[in-house]
Amino acid sequence: MDFTAIIIAMASLGGLGMIFSVGLSIANKKLHVEEDPRIAEVIEELPGANCGGCGLPGCAAFAEAVIAGEAEISGCPVNSDEGSQLIAEIMGVEVTTSERLIARVICQGGDYETAKKGVYQGVKTCIGATFAGGGDKLCSYGCIGYSDCVESCPFDAMYMNDNGLPVVINDKCTGCGNCVEACPRDIMELHPESHKLFVLCKNLDSPKESRKICTRACVGCGICVRLAGEGNMEMQDNLAVVNYDIYGSDPVLPTEKCPTDVLAILGGQVIEEKQSA
Amino acid sequence: MNLTTKMIVVLTVLTMVAGGLLSYWDGITSPRIEAYRLEQLKQAIAEVLPDHESYDEVKADGMILYIGKNSNDPEPVGLAFEAIGNGFQGKISIMVGISLDFKKINAIKILEQLETPGLGTKIVEDPSNKEDRFWFPNQFKNLITEPQIDVVKNIKPGKPNEIQAITGATISSVAMATILNDGIQKAKSIYQLKVQ
Amino acid sequence: MEEKTNEQEDQKSGPEGADPSLEKSTAPEKDGEKQEPVKKPETPAAKPKPAPAPKDPRDKLFKPEQTLIISSSPHFHTHDSVPKIMWSVVAALVPATVMAIYYFGMDTLIMIGSCVAAALVTEIIMNKMKGEGLTINDGSAAITGLLLALTLPPSLPISAGVIGSVFSISIGKQIFGGLGYNIFNPALLGRAFLQANFPVAMTTWTYPNTEKYAQIDAVTAATPLAQFKFDKIVANYGDLISGNVGGSLGETSALAVLIGGIFLLIMKYADWRIPVSYLGTVFILGGLFWFFSPGNYPDPVFHLLSGGLMLGALFMATDMVTSPITTAGSWIFGAGAGIVLVIIRLFGGVPEGVMYSILLMNAFTPLINRYTRPKYFGEVRA
Amino acid sequence: MGLPTFKKGIHPNDNKSFTNHKPIEYLPIPEEVFIPLQQHIGVAGDVLVEKGQEVKTGQVIGKSEKFVSAPVHASITGTVKAVDQFLHPLGIKATMIHIEKTAEEDEWETINAPENWETASIEDLRNLIWQAGIVGLGGAAFPTHVKLAPPKEKEINTFILNGVECEPFLTADHRAMLEMGDKMLIGMSIIMKILGTENGYIGIENNKPDAIEIMNELVSKKFPAFKVVPLKVKYPQGAEKMLIEAIVKRRVPAGGLPMDVGTVVNNVGTALAVANAVVEGKPLIERIVTVTGQGITEPKNLMVRIGTPFKTLMESCGGLKESAIQVYMGGPMMGFAQYDMNVPIVKATSGIICQEKSDIFKKKTYPCIQCGNCVSVCPMNLLPTRLSSFAEMVKLEEAEEFGILNCIECGSCSYVCPSNIPLVQWIRVGKLQVSESKRKKVA
Amino acid sequence: MAKSKTTLRYEFLKGLWDENPILKSLLGLCPVLAVTNSAINGLAMGLATTFVLLSSSIIISSIRNLIPNQVRIPAFIVIIATFVTVADRFLAAFFPLISKDLGPYVPLIVVNCIILGRQEAFSSKNSVFRSIIDSSGMGVGFILVLVALGGFREILGSASLFGVTVLGDWFQPWLVMILPGGAFLGLGIFIGIANWINDRRARA
Amino acid sequence: MKLILLFISAAVVNNFVLSYFLGICPFIGVSKKVSSAVSMGMAVTFVMTITAAVTWLIYHLILVPANLEILQYVSFILVISSLVQLVEMFVKKISKPLYDTLGIYLPLITTNCAILGLALFAVLREYNFMESLVYGIGAGAGFSLAIVIMAGIREELELAKVPKPFEGAGITMIVAASLALAFMGFAGLISV
Ligand SMILES: Cc1cc2nc3c(=O)[nH]c(=O)nc-3n(C[C@H](O)[C@H](O)[C@H](O)COP(=O)(O)O)c2cc1C
Ligand SMILES: Cc1cc2nc3c(=O)[nH]c(=O)nc-3n(C[C@H](O)[C@H](O)[C@H](O)COP(=O)(O)O)c2cc1C
Ligand SMILES: Cc1cc2nc3c(=O)[nH]c(=O)nc-3n(C[C@H](O)[C@H](O)[C@H](O)COP(=O)(O)O)c2cc1C
Ligand SMILES: Cc1cc2nc3c(=O)[nH]c(=O)nc-3n(C[C@H](O)[C@H](O)[C@H](O)CO)c2cc1C
Ligand code: SF4
Ligand code: SF4
Ligand code: SF4
Ligand code: SF4
Ligand code: FES
């Protein structure tokens, strides 16, 4: 065993190591750029879907905004409460839990229920169809049915049913609102979980018109308004509207009285049950 | 310990340990590696030179001549050297065994090459040729080197200094001839200078 | 875009009286994904139906007197279509195919047939695997098979041709998404694959069955380019034009290729800029080398007529899918391919570089497109 | 080389022989009209009438005080039946005023035209044009008084009268030039007086030799300052930017307006309307509409009241054939498909085209084969194939970088695409999304 | 990174499929591509890598608290490089033929992203025992893919497996499979198939 | 002339990525956008050049005289990683834009086979200092060429309908295979 060789080796490599560690430590002092280490920590805790549901261009941007105090800690709609809690720990504050939002499909005019106005040919997206008279369904207010909302959902929380209507899978919906953005007809709406009563129609046509257009259109008969009581619901432009500020969370309303079955009480269940028949 | 010292100490200690460890390992492995290298060399020389007992090394100009000897024979049995040159893709290095007058190749062995598999690699062996997988390197056995080694294509060589090119790898074949021709020239001049 | 016809429209609403939506109320249950309703929703299926009610609630709905087409402008369209273009290319390849059969015998026909068939079958299989409609009618797979066959040496085993054809369509085209999305020319990629796979078979040539070569008993021939590269022999132009030389099936007769190519250019199915710049660059660059050192380098006309240049420039470089869409891009594409070709032919390890030059420029095409985007009307660029 | 024109563009079959020889017919006053409040680019007016109210022809029934807006007038004398949502030819529900005819003869409520326009002040003239509710009749329906009020720093030195009518089938402008050229040129003079320019050009495509001849004659007789410019037949020659390039060789900058290069362009119909308003005090209540195509029994050029349902026009043309499968408002390249014949004629309706066969229906769509045809025809020098894929893949930044907002939706690209890709529709989607995301960024 | 909940079993198995370093994380691709022209080379490379991975994990996880963050990477690399040298010399001394075939790719294990990646992501944060489990899982996953890819390429490219001829004379070897193009192609197909299987599993 | 040929050989004919499989991780990872590919290419070229110079010095001035070739890997990698880290810190300090386009890629490069491979090849082939330097630049240029082409193609493929399982890495490998096939055309052009 040649010990000199070993010593030389230790000395040379050790020397190299020393030189560079000295260099690095000097550099570490002289060249250090301050950056909040919490940004990285927050990013760790985010789900990383980069869905934009928070209104910022991505998870990293959201993290920076949280650190800068420009965004709510619970502002990420996707993050679990547990996750938000962890971020809060990083930030050293309490989280305010907001009520869960769920997307609702406010139309029941599927292929089966609505009148057709012709044959649509062209781009099979809802927004594309708006440039050519809005698809082949006659209703100018209802769902076009080319699934823009479904495509836009980053969490696979939607699908199109056989009747050509979108369906939200409640458990998967995070309330990010992408589908609301995507829908050119404003059929998708975000509602707090506590909203139970819905008028599943957007048609503003006169009763005469709407009867001709869809078997599941609100025909503006006003029965529901009368049953619900003044102030709780009202008719606006031939359409019944629920006043959610004071009503709609715990309604006791005989929904079957609605002649076209647009009135629905939706719990957590999939809206499809209401729409497919 | 503050951070800076810690950084320096940790890295220095680590590298020292690593250096020591490796040097120790070097002591164990390098003799074996060296032995293997020598073994390989000896084997290659043995393959290209006729029977011999030992060889002398003559170094010059970056080339080593191995002169094969038998103890009871004053004349060396022949000469071996490594010829290196460019092939189709990269360097080809060939161990050449040659007669002392440099007129006749005894045999060659290709030590390294980077030719295209299946094409240029036929200079080493040709698995598709069932009769003689080594037909190409075997062509060099007892090949006459004067005036120089020539390559012919698609026909059987007519002259004693000709070899037949590999179909589809003319470049590699020609490169072999060139490397040998150049190497022989160089070895010859070294031999004449140093040995004679 | 799937087309919708009136008939389909009718079928969609189901047979008279039957209520398709009734079945749907038992729509796929996703376990755990649905919560129990707060209150059982009243579905009409559960609701007692008023007895004499109209059979179908939709009877009351509006029915247009005349079903009209709703589409976005423009409502006019040319009469060109993808299949029309593709089958015209096949037609344009007929002269070269005929010459190939004439020179290399009926085996050629079998080779071409197998390659085309393999291409079509692969296309069908890939269509099925991807779960999409059949796309063989558009003709592009047939072109790929045909062009691949025309670039193969006459003596290549049929099985190798079939392997190449399968590779062309599966890896060269369908894996990128099918027609229109491939980056590399599928036929050439298939050929490059074969070249690397079976290098010897792919560089073994035979002479045409013509009188000129009847006496020569050599099994293997050399292509004019290889002859020049390794032995500095220049073939005569007449043979090059008519195709009476060794080489790939469809490339030997410059004239036959040219006839088909000109047809394509006239029909505007191929961008004239690409062959012009490709051939032009080869002519000029090759000419320069020849001018300064005629002994070492072949003359430019020889360059143009020999090897697969004509076939490549007219039929393969012009494949619109894999060439730039901008006009400036087309010029650059052709010129780049020309430069690469001359470098490979004069200095490379292989005698012919058409395939590689086009494949390389295919790789550059996205970048070319990117950097040659024309200024749009009134654009001011920083 | 000959006639001036612009770069790129296409040559669709012009199909004008259906109606180009048919004189303009006056459609009898219709039984009812539906007058949308919004028939122009800009702010919609407020309703000035109530249900049950009697209105006279020419009476203002909707208007807004906002600058970029135009009033609408009753086009017949009658009673207001309803103010409600009705289907607009653009495929949306819009507020319209439904008037039922009560008198066979018009009772006019005109605007105060000056005695002699040549001495009237520019302010008055412009005001008059606003009162008359005149908007561009070339298709975009931009309020003309706004166009004629360029900001001070933009000096306007050229006016071009757009008599190109490059869309296939349409002949309304062509007939107007033949039959009402006189009045039209007076309108042009008025516009040029307002703009204060001396250089007037009249651009006409070479497939209307009779119009060129008549205009030349009129010009040489009465308006020697004007110049008639015959243009090579090519679509979309009529688009402002192309026309300006063809005639005065100026390029409107991207995102800019013609006035950025000192030019204003107006349609021949607009000039006619200006003359009607200024000389006769008649607001814009009628326009020429070409009803044509294989799918209509008897193609015609009709002078019709704004608000007349399509149905009425078709009946006067012998009705829609059984075999008709498509009807659109406007030309085949830019027109809007219709499915309900109750929609009314609006100020921007230049024609109703009824087709028996459709070029695109049932035609298969293939993936883009990168042939570059679309690139080689786009008059705006865009890469339509890329724009459409960007829109499809929602790559808005790239789309904007590639100039999607500059597309004039002329349809040339879709027309030539061998893969039959609905390029323009995708591009429209992209444009909408890009401008939305831009707006969001600003907000 | 609250991984403490996961079971040891999963800690090991994840390397085989769910977090397979090659098919999922796409790390350490250079040796994968370069040396898989035969199954035996793949195996040797896999073993060498696993050795380095395992030994450096042990060392790093045991001294993880001593190393300051700023010199983390140099320190890790020195440790890794040491073991690589050990392995390289070992091969050269005892398996010279394989060492020759693997050429310069053994030293390149130093910079193999898998090893550094595992140290960064796991060993520097977990106990020695967990690190060993994790590294062996990763190592086995690595070896499996290497051998499979090596086998695939060897069969097609040389008609043999582990040096034994398996395909008869009728088979003309696909030389491209032992060339660079074949390496990329083979790995691409492997990745595609792996994703396809995952998709199917996710949907089922 | 030798140096020029060496450069072309390293950049094109024996491309590091396409024929030696070095630096595949960044080649796959950072080739999604042309702009970042260009930055990565520049960063790699920069580090390669430094590496070629520094490792040559270390090898020939320290390791060979002291007969310590066994420390080759350790010392090379130590030097490279420390240097890169220093450069990164430096860039971050002096220029934010430069850091954003180049700096953030630097740490990725430490663990890039291409760098160490370059150092080892240069030693293996017994290049002198100048050759070593040119080899470094050429290899960097070759890497940049490959990654920029790949990024261009991948940007285009964003618009393509690649089957789901092959999206991303799968198709990237297939493209790399095709590129490797195409680059075989340069085989035998130069054999240095
Ligand atoms: C992918 C590829 C690899 C090649 N590899 C070699 C090679 O290793 N050796 C060689 O001499 N030629 C090689 N070539 C060159 C050609 O095969 C060339 O045509 C041949 O050298 C000419 O020989 P021939 O006249 O017998 O056909 C290669 C060509 C290609 C396309
Ligand atoms: C938002 C907007 C503002 C405009 N402002 C003016 C203007 O200030 N002056 C003007 O002369 N034209 C203006 N225009 C009209 C355009 O010049 C042009 O006439 C109109 O966009 C229709 O042209 P087209 O039919 O060729 O598309 C404006 C148009 C739009 C859409
Ligand atoms: C593609 C395209 C084609 C057009 N073709 C015509 C045309 O043929 N005739 C016309 O008067 N205006 C045409 N226009 C409208 C003009 O661009 C411009 O808006 C109009 O001439 C302005 O006049 P106005 O404000 O009086 O309508 C076209 C616009 C576009 C975008
Ligand atoms: C002018 C022209 C040339 C073509 N050349 C080729 C070709 O060289 N190779 C090929 O596979 N397909 C070719 N095609 C067919 C088609 O474009 C090709 O299959 C696509 O690349 C598949 O996406 C050509 C088509 C046209 C119109
Ligand atoms: S359904 Fe709508 S709100 Fe819910 S997750 Fe999907 S896109 Fe977001
Ligand atoms: S809800 Fe809206 S986006 Fe969804 S399919 Fe209907 S119209 Fe389209
Ligand atoms: S992109 Fe727009 S401007 Fe260009 S041709 Fe198409 S529609 Fe016309
Ligand atoms: S014309 Fe159609 S097929 Fe051709 S490039 Fe344009 S979009 Fe693609
Ligand atoms: S293994 Fe080579 S760069 Fe990652």
Provide an overview of this structure.
- The complex is a heterohexamer of chains A (277), B (196), C (382), D (443), E (204) and F (192).
- Chain B has 196 residues and is α+β, with helices and mostly antiparallel strands.
- Chain B has helices spanning 3-48, 135-138, 170-195, and strands at residues 54-60, 63-70, 73-86, 91-98, 105-112, 150-152, 162-164.
- Chain B has one domain.
- Helices cover 39% and strands 26% of the residues of chain B.
- In chain B, strands 1-2-3-4-5 form a five-stranded antiparallel sheet, sandwiched between helices. In chain B, strands 6-7 form a two-stranded parallel sheet.
- Chain C is mostly helical and 382 residues long.
- Chain C has a single domain (82-371), classed as Ammonium transporter fold, CATH 1.10.3430.
- Chain C contains 17 helices and one strand.
- Mean pLDDT of chain C is 81; it is low at 1-49.
- Chain E has one domain (2-203).
- Chain E has eight helices and two strands, in the order αααααααββα.
- Chain E has helices at 8-13, 29-35, 39-62, 72-94, 96-102, 113-123, 128-158, 180-203; strands spanning 160-161, 164-165.
- Chain E is globular and about 60 Å long.
- The model of chain E is unreliable at 1-5 (pLDDT under 50).
- Chain F is mainly α and 192 residues long.
- In chain F, helix 1 runs parallel beside helix 9 (129-157), helix 4 (34-63) crosses helix 5 (72-94) and helix 5 crosses helix 8 (113-124).
- The model of chain F has no long low-confidence stretch (mean pLDDT 85).
- Chain F is globular, with a radius of gyration of 17 Å.
- Chain F has helices at 2-13, 16-20, 24-29, 34-63, 72-94, 96-101, 106-110, 113-124, 129-157, 169-183.
- Chains B and F meet through helix 1 of B and loops of F.
- The structure holds flavin mononucleotide (FMN) (3 copies), riboflavin, iron/sulfur cluster (4 copies) and FE2/S2 (inorganic) cluster (FES).
- One flavin mononucleotide sits between chains B (88, 115-116, 119-120, 167-172) and C (195-196, 199, 203, 226, 230, 349-351).
- Residues 136-140, 142, 162, 164-167, 236, 238-240, 265-267, 270, 334, 408, 410 of chain D line the site of one flavin mononucleotide (FMN).
Q: Topology as H/E string of chain A?
A: HHHHEEHHEEHEEHHEEEH
For the record, what CATH class of chain C applies?
Mainly Alpha
Number of contiguous helices of chain A: 10
Unreliable residue stretches of chain A: 268-277
Percent helix among the residues of chain A? 25-40%
The shape of chain A, in one word, is elongated
Main sheet specs of chain C:
none
How much strand of chain C? under 5%
Task: Give the distance, in angstroms, between the N- and C-terminal Cα atoms of chain C.
Answer: 38 Å
The structural domain count of chain C equals: 1
* Low-confidence runs of at least 5 consecutive residues of chain C: 1-49
- Number of E-state strands of chain C: 1
Largest interface comes to: C-D, 46 and 69 residues
Quick recap of the structure?
Chain E is mainly alpha-helical. Chain E is built from eight helices and two strands.
Features:
heterohexamer; D: 443 residues; alpha/beta; Rossmann fold; 2 domains; 6-stranded mixed sheet; 4-stranded antiparallel sheet; 17 strands; F: 192 residues; mainly alpha; 10 helices; binds flavin mononucleotide; binds riboflavin; binds iron/sulfur cluster; binds FE2/S2 (inorganic) cluster
